[in-house]
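Pilot study result, target chain (203 residues):
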Amino acid sequence: MTTSYRVMPGPEHFLPPSAASMGIRLPDPGQGHIHGTIVTEEEAMEQAARQFLSAKVPTIFPGPLVLWAWNDKAAKKAKAVRYLYETIKESVDSSQHAMLIPMPDYRPKYPKINPEIEINPNHPNLTIWHNKIDACMFVGVHCHQANLSLKIIRGGTNCYTIAMCAQAGHEDAMLSFRDATAEKIIRLADWVKKLKGSVAPPA
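Predicted structure:
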């Protein structure tokens, strides 16, 4: 199915449509998507690395599936996420500020959250606005919660969203991978290293 709809940085409007309802489909194994267009996984890796290297505040939001060591795979992914973060941090210049902000659970934080130290998936735009985040990646976030948060971010901010999904990917991210493993996260870090110095930092 071809569609003219593109999943782009917002602000789109108060209640953006779900990308799936607009005809955006999920990638097959070995593929990713950029703005809703199906591409090879390597093309998506390169574009994600470029987004991190060109952002003022490149940020990773790890969710409960990698924050809690509930099995060996989760522990390996957590180490890979930390490695990716350290790689981004070492690859950006002094005008950029890489961040790692956890999403340990999905319970609403009322009456107030501290957006400096945690992302609240029910109000993710507050953390994006507070920290002036212009590119972020979700990893280890349950699919239903990721899609909700990605829509809120797209609706109210201009942040570029990347989703590294352990299942089939996320239509509501600007860029998405599927079948995430620790090895795949490390491959993304390798792309960041490979492109270091060749991507202009933000003006």
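One observation from the pilot: The longest strand covers residues 58-62. A full batch analysis is planned for the follow-on phase.
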